[in-house]
Amino acid sequence: MKTLYRIALAAIFTMGLTACDDFLDSEPKSSVDPDKYFTEASQLQTYADEIYPRILPGSNYGYYGTDDQYTDNQIPETAPDRFFEGQWKVPYSEGNWSFETIYRLNFFFSEVLPRFGEDLSGSQNTISGDLVSIKHYIGEMYTLRALEYFKRYQNFGDFPIITEPLPDDETALIEASKRMPRNEVARFILSDLDKAAVLMNGKDMVTTRINRDLALLIKSRVALYEGTWLKYFKGTAFVPNGEGWPGKSKEYNANYQYPSGSIENEINYFLDEAISASKEVAEKYKNSLTANTGTLQQNSGDSENPFYEMYAVEDLSSYPEVLLWKQYTYGVSTHGICVGANQGNWALGITRACVQNFLMADGTPVYKNGSYSDGNGVYKGDKTIADVRANRDSRLSVFLKEPGQKNILVDGTSPLSTFYRTEPYPGITDGANQTRATTGYLLRKGGAFDVKHYQDVWAGFVGVVLYRSAEALLNYMEASYEKNGTLDGTAREYWQILRRRAHVSEDIDATIMATDMAKEAENDWGAYSAGRLLTDKTLYNIRRERRSEFLSEGLRYMDVCRWRAMDQMLSTPYIPEGMHLWNTPMEQWYNGLVADGSANATVSQKSDSEYLRPYRRTSTQKCYGGYKWKMAHYLEPIMAKQFLITASDGVTIESSPIYQNPYWKTAADTPAGAPAPCDLCRCRTRCCC
After folding, report:
1. 3 has which bridge partners?
2. Cβ within 8 Å of residue 162, ≥6 positions away
3. Would you call 316 exposed, middle or buried from its count of C-beta atoms within 10 A (0-12, 13-18, 19+)?
4. Cα separation of 37 and 40, whole Å?
5. Using N-to-C axis directions, what is the helix angle for 489-501 and 537-549, rounded to 10°?
6. What is the Cα–Cα distance from 254 to 25, expressed in whole angstroms?
7. pLDDT tens digits, residue range 266-318?
8. SS3 398
9. pLDDT class for 11, splitting at 50, 70, 90?
10. What is the helix (H) or strand (E) element at residue 467, kind and residue range?
């Protein structure tokens, strides 16, 4: 008998549990009698504390989310498999199709909710302790379940909705594995967040814990995600009832109808939810965003820049903008963010496209100020990093590193030898992962000025920002514009607040008028949706604002997926570039560069481009010909084993209630296929993709 993992309370609070990839394939464990647990508030908190690190974002460099490496913002030293023909394949047993954490969450609810009662006010509660705290911890768990489901939903789209621990019965488990349409999963997530908001309304917690405002922010993110996904994938296999939707092949989804009556109504439903939730948060925090001086502190006696410090201090509790952050302690819990920011960003390089996309301080796009290479004096060109930083949006100029800048302002001794008190020339040929500047452009986001954070490579302990209220302003701007097609007064106010903080001209209309979409297409995947260049300059600039605000904070891949902003690479490869190396003063920074295309080459050839092309040093490199995209890659494949363990006879894949994602196969170790001719065309009469 295949069985679902039974949680052992004793294990949770001692050694934890081993992760299990398979939904049905695990052994039951003995457990502490739950009748003797979940009876007082402190026990609810303890259980929630164990779940937190399983779900919340980690602290990998990138800045905090490495998903930016799959975008036009940042690239790793080696090109990602998803952009290289035939390299991303269906796994046999590995992957993100896992229910262990969901089971843990549902176990909590199965034990706690009968004691708390159905009334969210707590009138039926029998758990001992402070009622407000009890409600808050339950709200935290609803938020955590929402976040866990949001991860799975982003990966797979359609996904099983399971709200209770399942019995050790194979038939019941297989039945529970049925995939629900993605919009239903999104609705379920919003429902959990609505409950969380009600339950957590009444208690102010330290911002290292989940709170009501965070639940609303996440709600706005999820609703915006689904609303825009449905809009830009409408009619395709990636939405319910679209052409080729694989859910139609299963009896339980064959007659599916949107709860709002149509996909158009469903789009509006989610956008309305995003508008409402984001506005509530935005109105509360719009006047308390972290101040930005627009400059980088370079002497200990100079005034600090709070905006920079928000990413580089140990305690973030005094920053109202930070809705949730992760605390670290030296010798107990540390990370490598500081060393990464001090050195080579862990070989995760900022692209030329990203740098060029930032506006000038006067609100004009770079290309309105002469050529990219030379500029006109307002824009000084890109032949040195100092020139690139001059007169720009401060979100770029403050965080983009320049040789000669001071990295340490509070000095002392450190056993770590490989950190830089003063910024050197970018290590574009360095072999070490921590010092290699893949593109030549480096970020100092997360780099502390105090030497105490450089006692070891992994000894940093600055606090890590997980969620910021600034996102609420951007979510409202985008959702309201997508819904109504106009920039209302509230959206305009929010936009001006963000630009004022960034030290960029508040004349939004001037920026829109100066925007040339053909030029933007050179530097921004977000200039596209469904393989077509945007014609709406206002919408495009809202997308640009989001890109600039969340530089290296791990939201970019989520955005380009929901905008369907990678279709253009189905036919036109994208070649990532870095700094302007050849025929510039920066060429003189380096001795002995090898640029002959051989196996010993250290940089790309001058004849190829004057700009550094990290994947074109030699023709044997992955993605030498540029990034190429597959429609299938907007979603992950479900592992092959999952079809077998849910098949009625354990052999016949077709008898499984699970269906594979569009254009992926069910056999292990196989790459994605291509859509049928014109499968993605709304006109259905000619191939437009």
Report:
1. 26
2. 99, 102, 106, 176
3. buried
4. 8
5. 40
6. 28
7. 999 999 999 999 999 999 999 999 999 999 999 999 999 999 999 999 999 99
8. coil
9. very low
10. strand 464-468
